[in-house]
Design a protein that fits this description.
eight-stranded mixed beta sheet
Amino acid sequence: MLKQLSLVLLTSLLPLSPCAAGTFRAGAASADITPAKGVLLDGPISKNGPVTGVHDRLHARALVLDDGKTRLGIVICDACMIGRDVFDQARLLISKQSAINPKFILMAATHTHAAVRATHIGTGKLDNAYHQQLARGIATAVLAAEKNLAPAQLGHGSFQKPELIACRRFLCKPGTVDPNPFGERGERIKSVSGRSSGVIKPAGPVDPQFSILSLQHADGSPLAVLGNFSVHYCGGYQRGLVSADYFGHYAAALEAELTTGKERPPFVGIMSNGTSGNTGAIRKDGKKYEPFEWIKVSGRLLAAETIKTIETIEHRADISLQVLQSELVLGVRKPDAKRIKWAQGVLAKPGVKQTHNWTTVYANETLHLSRYPDQKSIILQAIRLGDIAIAAAPCEVFAETGLAIKGRSPFLKTFTIELANGYGGYLPSPEQHKLGGYETWPARSSFLELEAEPKIQQAMVNLLKQLTMPKKNNGK
């Protein structure tokens, strides 16, 4: 019987360094997490081969915040996805040197597709070594950010960018969608690696809101910025070259414009992924771009809009902090005996032409899923920064779920960070599962039970509702 584990209101168990109660402080730092040549870039479905070079380096970018009673961390990594075991190892390393309760740290991947899928898809020595390197890099960033704690003030703002975002799942007329990789007909969705002659409309909404957390030193000089946007990624790479995608170029563009002065640690720009499981790449403006060029252009565009917005934000020093966390046990969509027999038959005939280009890939994925446990436990978090709420889930969350969480949150200022504290695959709603499409096909990229979305959404809303509304500057 599936169950939600009891909610735990977490309080810092380790002694904090001296800080007067009610004094808000913040620190930021980054650490290099670029993989070596030869580390595999393959995903469950996409097969990108090994790292052959570096276009731009990858980083773990961290914030540490402290209100005198609670200390928490947020660290965003230039990675496609990161398994819970890597994050757990980073927490263990942090706990040996830090005053932060390890459960008070939100860790997430950006979802750049030009970086490692750190979920043990690659199993060679270099791949395993990179998992360890990644955990150390995350810990290094958090520990450095903690050392940089200084009196600070926090503000929130947002702007809309609907022209950059679109749903990649399209509802189609019955009978017009080609068979899926399993040879099945009857799906209604054209999505990744899907074809149809009868597209009707996008199958779901998108969230065009770009959210901003702006941190300043007590004198108003910039300290760090965390941006959040619900676009899957940008793309336009060259095979084998590592890149942080527009997430990293957004951060770099901010860092080029916002400086703290020589007497302080460097300003840190950060970009997290919102709820982009059903969205495509950042939409181009109709121009032709060389490889990696559009990620720079779009990153700078969003950074410029961010800086403009920050000028209108009220920053406050009377910030209190809170973290809530729960674990949710969910079923796994394991293949039945018939599906396993199908997969074995496909793989026994490697030269035979299949009905779908990815049939062999999904046959392999079927066997991988057959070895999964029957259930998976995932971490959900809710963080309050004054009257701002952040929800965090490990899945590739659809925009419709993110919008529902915003709408049901008691806080007017709410956004979600996906791919946080582990990897739970795509999160279609039961209705989207019925329609089919790439994001629903069982694989290591989509393995949770059909009812996972409403259970995660409700658990996430429960966490948000149990956060303590601050007395000042209340939400709705």
